[in-house]
Amino acid sequence: MVLRTGLPITWLPMHHLPFAPPSSTAGSSQDLDAQRCYQAMADKDAAWDGLFFTGVTSTGIYCRPVCRVKLPRQANCRFFETAVQAEAQGFRPCLRCRPELAPARRFWSTTDAQAVLDVLDELREKVVVGRTSSGAIREFQLRYRYRFRLRSSNGTELIPDTEILLTRDINFNETGALSKESEEALLYRDMENDLVLQLQRRLAAVRQL
Ligand SMILES: [Zn+2]
Fold it and tell me: Which residues, 6 or more positions from 142, have their beta carbon under 8 angstroms from its beta carbon?
């Protein structure tokens, strides 16, 4: 997920899903429509990538609509708005389509933009938080700092400068240095997912005003 400065946003309250692809405006349903999601999977339709995720009950794996694996039976499919929700239900990310890397565009659209998200600062830090009695590093904390501002398309400020700080602790173990790197990447991805949810909540709150 890459959030860029000046990214236009279309309002979508959390309970309203964009169940038409972003390019389409006609006939969009307000509810997660299993039949349409399943058809998008069958078509491997890239227009839907990042808009929903499919958990497959027979395998315990969740996928993007564009995944190349064999189409599961519809009865075994559960559809989720976000990767985080699929994981909360116990589904593991597919190693083929890497759903945790899907574009976070569920609420982004370059057409029909009603607000613009300015990313003022995005910072990743790794801080030592624990040492052994001999002074060796025992524990790190990964920090993901994200500062943004939201304004309407005519320039009115909707959310002033706001900082979101997310953290994850990670044990240090020299022998596992390589696997630590991928663990860190996963933790950062997890924080990015968290960030998207937090942004969605804040956007939905502004939308109510
Ligand atoms: Zn997959």
Answer: 124, 125, 126, 167, 168, 169, 170, 184, 187, 188, 191
Q: How far is the CA of 82 from the centre of ligand 1 (A)?
A: 14
Ligand 1 centre distance from Cα of residue 162 (Å): 35
Tens digits of per-residue pLDDT, 132-170?
888 888 888 999 998 888 877 677 888 899 999 999 988
Tell me the per-residue pLDDT of 31-41, one tens digit each, with 9 for 90 and over.
458 888 999 99
Distance 150 CA to ligand 1 centre (A): 34
Domain range 115-208, its CATH number among 3.10.560.10, 1.10.510.10, 3.30.870.10, 3.30.160.150: 3.30.160.150
CATH 3.40.10.10 given to domain 18-101: yes
